[in-house]
């Protein structure tokens, strides 16, 4: 037995019921289960013997997010270095520049190393603040309720950080995750009892509370004095001509070499993550496919309509490659807590999210993204969808049995 295991075993009586630090038991359990599997087992029947627990599920999801994380860090650095190079800078200003210079990197958009390091220096502070602020609320509520700190926050924190612009002020990062954890999850009882996706709740709060910092042109490239709209922002103004005039190709959009949030620009990376989640049985392929069907069908049926709305002319394959649609469909919509439980409900929910994304993008020129609000709206109706599916199954069985 390792020295760490012996130390934890020696300290455990101090944190269990009746110990000197009983009220901090949740914190001790968090540290213990971070390094070792919990020793708790089911005491009575019925129970299912299975190696898949919440911790392993969350680990798989985190690994599935890694492709988006790595591409996102590279793209964030690439966009920032490109902007600096266009402004005549050879070095990155500020403390990031000092670190990059120490590691032999500058504002060179042609360097994979420089781009990745620069993007990492934007992602790291946001993620650290997210973990600190959100983890504080998780531990606080666990201590008050005297239950274990759930591993679900590791996924929430990662997804939340990746859907933020790189230029988001750190105090807003802390405020958003605090709102998402407290209002979006803990007030309803904690992990497994929330009916909305906490990461999206925090992001939506920031969007509506601080629209200047979380929307518009300048936020997407974190370089002072540089302004550049996202592809969806260009399309909302000038349609596909605006995208073409910017020089963005479909290959760049699909691979994620465009302006956007930290980790949601690459459809290719999202599809790799989707394959991992579907193969392991963590995510519902029906929800993912339903989301794609929901946005592709109206785009196909209505793209030929003669209208002054430039978004109506956007082809379906551009819809799935732009913005955070693929990221939302793969990682957000498939949240097992806030999505429906029935198989038919998965289809209905996924199609609803896809259709609503298209409607928001096309009909509402002030909000060209759409996937965030579509998923939150779908979360609200998830219990109703399950209710009608179950009631329909009950009526069908009664009729089949002659009742």
Structure description:
Among the domains are: 1-38, no CATH class; 54-228, no CATH class. The model has no long low-confidence stretch (mean pLDDT 86). The protein is mainly α and 403 residues long. The protein has helices at 3-15, 25-35, 54-86, 94-102, 112-145, 152-162, 170-182, 198-209, 211-214, 231-246, 250-255, 267-279, 285-302, 316-321, 325-332, 343-363, 371-400. Helix 16 packs antiparallel against helix 17. The protein is globular, with a radius of gyration of 23 Å. It has 17 helices and no strands.
What are the SSEs and their pairings?
Elements: H1 3-15, H2 25-35, H3 54-86, H4 94-102, H5 112-145, H6 152-162, H7 170-182, H8 198-209, H9 211-214, H10 231-246, H11 250-255, H12 267-279, H13 285-302, H14 316-321, H15 325-332, H16 343-363, H17 371-400
Helix pairs in contact: 3-5, 3-6, 3-12, 5-6, 5-7, 6-8, 7-8, 8-17, 12-15, 13-16, 16-17
Task: Please outline what is shown here.
The chain has 403 residues and is an all-alpha fold. It is built from 17 helices and no strands.
What overall geometry do the principal axes of the alpha carbons give?
Answer: globular
Amount of helix? 55-70%
What is the overall pLDDT average? 86
Number of helices: 17
Main beta-sheet annotation: none
Q: N- to C-terminal separation?
A: 62 Å
One letter per element, helices H and strands E, the order comes to HHHHHHHHHHHHHHHHH
- Strand percentage: under 5%
Q: Tell me the Rg in angstroms.
A: 23 Å
User: Which regions are unreliable across 5 or more consecutive residues at pLDDT < 50?
Assistant: none
Total number of strands: 0
SS class:
mainly alpha
């Amino acid at each position: 037995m390792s020295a760490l295991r012996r130390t934890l075993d020696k300290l455990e009586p101090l944190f269990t019921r009746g110990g000197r630090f009983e009220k901090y038991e949740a914190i001790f359990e968090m540290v213990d289960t971070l390094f070792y599997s919990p020793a708790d087992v089911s005491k009575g029947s019925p129970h299912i013997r299975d190696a898949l627990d919440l911790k392993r599920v969350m680990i798989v999801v985190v690994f599935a997010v890694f492709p988006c994380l790595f591409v996102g860090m590279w793209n964030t650095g690439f966009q920032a270095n490109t902007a600096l190079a266009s402004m005549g800078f050879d070095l990155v200003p500020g403390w990031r520049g000092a670190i990059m210079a120490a590691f032999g990197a500058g504002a060179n958009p042609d360097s994979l190393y420089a781009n990745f390091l620069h993007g990492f220096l934007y992602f790291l502070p946001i993620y650290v603040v997210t973990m600190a602020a959100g983890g504080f609320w998780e531990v606080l509520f666990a201590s008050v309720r005297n239950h274990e700190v759930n591993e679900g926050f590791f996924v929430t924190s990662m997804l939340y950080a990746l859907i933020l612009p790189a230029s988001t002020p750190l105090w807003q990062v802390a405020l958003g995750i605090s709102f998402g954890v407290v209002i979006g999850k803990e007030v309803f009882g904690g992990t497994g009892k929330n009916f909305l996706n906490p990461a999206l709740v925090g992001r939506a709060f920031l969007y509506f509370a601080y629209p200047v910092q979380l929307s518009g042109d300048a936020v997407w490239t974190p370089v002072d004095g540089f302004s550049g709209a996202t592809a969806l922002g260009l399309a909302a103004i000038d349609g596909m001509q605006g995208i073409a005039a910017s020089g963005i190709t479909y290959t760049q959009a699909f691979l994620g070499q465009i302006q956007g949030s930290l980790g949601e620009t690459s459809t290719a990376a999202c599809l790799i993550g989707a394959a991992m989640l579907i193969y392991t049985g963590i995510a519902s392929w029906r929800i993912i496919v339903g989301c794609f069907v929901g946005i592709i069908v109206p785009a196909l049926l209505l793209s030929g309509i003669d209208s002054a709305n430039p978004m109506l002319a956007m082809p379906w394959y551009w819809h799935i490659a732009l913005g955070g649609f693929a990221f939302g469909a793969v990682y957000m919509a498939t949240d097992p807590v806030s999505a429906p439980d029935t198989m038919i409900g998965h289809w209905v929910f996924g199609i609803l999210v896809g259709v609503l994304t298209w409607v928001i993008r096309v009909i509402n020129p002030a909000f060209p993204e759409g996937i965030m609000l579509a998923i939150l709206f779908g979360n609200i109706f998830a219990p109703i969808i399950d209710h009608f599916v179950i009631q329909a199954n009950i009526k069908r069985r009664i009729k089949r049995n002659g009742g």
